[in-house]
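Today's session is about reading a structure prediction critically. Students often jump straight to the picture, but the first step is always the sequence itself: look for stretches that repeat, for charged clusters, for runs of hydrophobic residues. Only then move on to the predicted structure, which in these notes is written as discrete structure tokens rather than atom positions. Here is the chain we will use throughout the hour.
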Amino acid sequence: MAVARLVAMGGLVRELVTEETPSRIAALTEELFQAAGSVSEESERAAEAEPQLPGAVPLSSPPEETQLPCTLGHTAALAQVEEGAVSLWNWAVTKHMGSVVSDEQRAKLRFVACKLVCLCEDGDPPEGTIRRQILMCMKTGKSWIDIGKADLADGFLEIAMSAVAQGDFQKAMMCVQRCKDMLMKLPKETCYLSILCYNFGVETYEWKKYEQSSFWLSQSYDIGKMDKKYSVGKEMQAKVLRLLATAYFEWDCSLYLDKALRAISLANQENFHPAGFFLKVKILLKSGASDEDINSAVAEFLHHEMSLDFCLNTAKLLLEHGRESVGLDFLKSVSQQFESSPDFGKIALLHIEFLLQNKRELLAKQKVEDIIIGHYTGKQLLPEALNQLHIILWDRAAKHYEAKSYSEALHWYNYSVSFYTPGQIDQNLAKLQRNMASCYLHLKQVDKAKEAVKEAERCDPNSIFTKFSVYKIAVMEKDTDKAVAAAIEIGKLAEKPSQHEDRLRADENTGTNLLSLAAQIALENEQQVVAIKALEYLSEHLQDCQQLFAALKCLVRLMLSKVMAEDEEKRDEDINSILSYLTLAHRRLAESFTEEKFTGDMRILEAHWFRKVAWNLAVQFRSSPEKMRDFFLLSFKLSQFCPSDKAVLIGQKTCLLMAAAVDLELGRQEVTPSQQAELLTQALQHLQACKEIWKILKLTGDFGEDPTDTLLLLYEFEARSKLNDPTLYNLMESVWEQPQIEVKTLEIIASLAMESPARYPALCKKALKSALNLHRKQTVIDAEKFSKCLHSLINLALPTGLTDLDACVLQEVWDYFEDALSVVSSIDAYPEMEILWLMTRAWNTGILQYTVGKYREAEQWCGLGMRFLNHLGSLKKSYENHMIGLYSEVLDKLDRAKGFVPNEE
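Below is the predicted structure for this chain, in token form.
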């Protein structure tokens, strides 16, 4: 290899360590890395094959190829290159810490520095130089491994680290063995190699490769013993052996039990540690060792100072493995050893827990009573231990409560109460009193339950659980007012985020759970009013759709039964409540599309149930138009969540028609103009929606006898006419074109056209004339209906009391009278009172003309009246003489007017 190339590389190194520009640093790093790689390949080809150190790099200098082309001597030049390599190594460390160079750049620079150092050495380097080369080679290989390029580490690290990283266990074993062989020459590396093997043991243990782990840990222990001067120390050796014992234990305890025991025994001999003792006991227990063997191990342990917690964990281990005799004896010894310790209570608690677990409740009670005596004689438990005791006592009481042994539960709760001073305010005491109150209630001891709840209120009056306890007692005592008030309090507290002791227990479902339970308790005790109040609050807070609809159904049924039993005067408020329940059902059905658990089929079933209820209630409360309308509208809205089959569409159509009808009816009553306009506008909205449904519905079958078209027409005409809607005439254009329109429809249109605030005389007249035409077309004229229609038309065309009438108007009305006379003459069934009315109107019209000097017109109209007189029956005699006399006067006046005869005085 040319020394000149090494010197050239040295020049690049000197340039790099003085460079500050990142891009230039990156370029120089890559150039050096490529140059070092090519120099390394030449060196490897030239070097003779010979045994090498674990660093896998030749420690002797390669054969020289050329002389340096400078004045520096050969040795001095290489020394300068080596010095530069060390500087490069240190520079790379510094720059990497300052984030100037990346992990990969650091690995490449280490590669370059390590190569240069190795290639600059002469044939017989000193021990320090060899150690430095090994260290540099190891760290270079580690750098490659760290960036995920373990294969590049082979050239530097053909020892265990690379092999382990690549999962090559056999190669790693061989490398370590070679390293062990070299320790005779380099004993100072004993510690390093021992720790390296330990690290491999830890790593393979974590991978659960117990066979490999046991090998590495054994190697670590063996290497640690090779040179006491440079050993890792007894503590580290014991640590290695404990992990080795653990690896055997977890690998296969039955197969490697002896090895595990031997390893842990050696560990405890090297350096006693609580973990070593604990592991030995675990191994003995797993192996099924006799009590005598375990006692022996425990006795060995007692000679050393150990913490109380460690002793308790050991006792617990023994007791959990069924070694009661050994465990209790050990616990007794620990008790004596720590008698004066402030943590002494922990021992008693463990003993109590063991007794309870083994169903020795009587002995456990004695232990608890001893602690209570000690509490009042100056031997109190520390707060942490006392809290743990309360937990144990409450847990035992809860188990008895679940088993319905309420007296026993009270016994354990009373133990807990014993640790509180009279008058003490504590939220845990409030919980305790509430739990005791529940037990008293089950035992029917209401007075004691009330006392307990009173104490709970004193300690924590704003707790939702305290309110629930008050509620339960009120229900049991059938105090409806107090129960309702408590239910309201529970509902209000359920709305607020918990800010008291129940914060950990009172999650978002606590309020709903308590309200649900409150409703159930009320129903079981036949407290209907109370149950309704609880369910109302419950329905406001439930998030689960299925639970909500179940609650609403229950509410509807309860309220309906209440309404049916009430007087009509008291019903309004409860009917409004039912409306609110159905409205909530509609709102939550609309929101339920985002809830995965609530399927489409569920939604349809619920919608059908609520829409039918709303329909039935609308029919039931028809005496209250507004309520009826609201229920019909709710039924329509709820039906929109159902499939649009024929039955549903018919229901929707009917609901909207009825709602429009009610709005129109309310609009006819004494309301303000703005209220009337609002009602009429609502009616039009309902009618428009109904039209769309009716279009679809007519496609499903024959509805020939269905009056929907007529009703839609009449309702729309009324609404638009009273709103003075300019589109009214467009609506009527389509009506006049209908060939099958009924007489009754035209008559109603005529009536509505003049019903205040509407006033459309032209439309009214046209409708009446159309109706009369239809009457005439009948095979047999219905005289009564014809007469009424004609009556209305004449009234419209000939206002009463007007004298100055246009000739055209009089002619038009004259035609109506002639028409009437022809019908009267042709049939016998014409109502006599209508004939009398026609006669009177014609006669009075004539007299009005007479009074203004229009004698010819007076003679015509009076003559018309006389013609109707001839058709009167029994009433003719009452009018005949009077009318004949007056008619003569009219004729006389007419004759005088014709001859200009002056009046006689």
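Discussion point for the tutorial: DSSP finds 39 helices and no strands in the chain.
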